[in-house]
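Q: What does the assembled structure look like for these inputs?
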Amino acid sequence: MTFKTVLLGATAAAAFATGAMAQDDKTKVGFIYVGPVGDLGWTYQHDQGRLAVEEEYGDKVETVYVESVPEGPDAERVLTQMALQGADLIFTTSFGFMEATMNVAQKFPDVKFEHATGYQRADNVSTYSARFYEGRAVQGLIAGEMTESNIIGYIGSYPIPEVIRGINAAYIQAKKVNPEVEFRVVWAYTWFDPAKEAEAAKALIDAGADVILQHTDSTAPQAAAQEAGDVITFGQASDMLDYAPKPRVSSIIDNWNQYYIDRVGAVIDGTWESKDTWDGIDAGMVEIGEITDAVPTEVKEAALALKDAIAAGEVHPFTGPLKKQDGSDWLAEGEVADDATLAGMNFYVEGLTGEIPQ
Amino acid sequence: MIRLERRPEPSRAWTLATPFVAVALTMVAGGLLFALLGKDPIEAIRTIFWDPLFGDFASYSRPQLLVKAGPLILIAIGLSLGFRAGIWNIGAEGQYILGAIFAAATGLAFYPAESWLIFPAMTLAGALGGLLWAMIPALLRVRFGTNEVLVSLMLVYVAEALLASMALGLLRNPDGMGFPGSRNLAQYPSAANPELIVGTGMHWGVVLALVAVIVGQVVMTRHQLGFRVRLAGQSPRAAVFGGVNPSWLVVVCMGLSGALAGLAGMFEVAGPAGRLGIDFNVGYGFTAIIVAFLGRLNPIGILLAGLLMALTYIGGELAQLQMNLPLAAIQMFQGMLLFFLLAIDVLTNFSFRFGRRAVA
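A:
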């Protein structure tokens, strides 16, 4: 294709330009973020990973980032600019960057790409994600124990498998400790929009929820819960400790630091290979933020025990007997969900009300 | 004491000079902002305004300017017509979305058949989608005297909800493994809106934007519609006496701007964006309002303003990449542009007087 030749010419120019610069031995690592680095949630944690890379390798690396990039043609342009400017490795940190990542990776076979939470790979594209659902299970246990109204509000971002998995995992655990529990899910259709998130939280609180779980990245729901009074929340992606000990009683922390350090190291050593990584609590990619004193000791102990059991591989959050929402059988007694089903999860488990938008 | 005094007639010199003065002041104030952030202001300004055009990788970024400016110009041309007549279509973003939905639905209805008719049909559908969405505020205003600013703006949120429902339901890609979003139209040859000349960024939407600039210029200066629009804008009463039907004008202006916004959505969804996703719209319809005013509601001005706006976007990304400037600083920089434009604009209609007011 001729477009390719133009770009190849451009890459050649890029190679020439960087070659002319003195610090060519530096490994250049790019990050493209869907939100602002100051969201104190998802993007913030990825940026912490970037800083960890800088700290680990010092002068050997140079990192660059572009924040709040819309998922679509803009992402493709930003990625192309990064590749043209000589990035050796680029982390694309949102599901919606998948197509842009694949397109740009095809045009720059010598640049390595790492796409978070996606499912498409290539020789120069790896994918990585964390088993957030493990943390969701722990969260579900605390939520189920703590609720008095038996209504738990859940702010969903987009109805994609990742988010649906989290709702299911939290619900299964909550139901186990409190059979009366009910989940109300509101879809915000955003990863980061404090105004929309606050609105969703308020609507859920008005509907009687006294526990709010969120799959969106801002602290707005925490603020809304604080204002409402007797409502508890959990930090999402980041610790959100500013709202501890209440409303924030615990959190799921995404810790990308070690993964980023390892992958950048692999590029420096020349051992980088395309692969899929899906790590959980045991590898340290998912952490449970400190459970505060607002939670009774026995609940806290049960939550930590569950966390340890998941880390040790003794408990899988999706263990049968489980049925789907429509009543059909999913997992038999003792059966554990396989990764492929989890990766493409598009159904609620039995007991959840409401429909997944479609 | 300094006073503002209304000019007997708007100053032609200031009308022309305003955008340039505004850009210059933005550079100064923006440079100051960047300096306060500890960045080299000259380098920052150069990165934003110069590098996308003449930097190391300009061969890539120059065509991208057209891709980014195309929809802005197309929408702004339509808006400027109504704005001149005092008809405020603020909901171009919604009309843009509806154009994309109509076009994508039309294209996908034929999938996977191949025919040269599909693309023109999608184009018509896109224009129709935008037009119909704009007709809601237009007819409500004509019939019930509602405020088109509010209605058209509110319909943006309705359109966004509709878009989400389409991406998750009717138009969802059946082979998409349960993820939201339609099939990729850019990979469906009969529906694709590809780059027409490789390496230029020119796609049908950019071509149409350029045509719209020319037609817009002719209409405004030579056509009766342009005369009526200007008359209605300057003096609504005189326009009525002059035989201009205000209702007719509202419908025509809203319809045209809606259709153009719908077309912009159509070319975006079939080309650069490819698929209809929940986040398909990224604010072109709102940014186009800035572009329309930055371009003095004049077609040639809008062309230049659209390119300038695209430049600040792409240059802004480069500044983030090369200088680690935070996005918020770039956005402030873009905001300053409009701020200074409006501030300087006062001089078009007013002049400064020094000293005390003369006793009348």
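Residues 60-299 of chain B form one domain.
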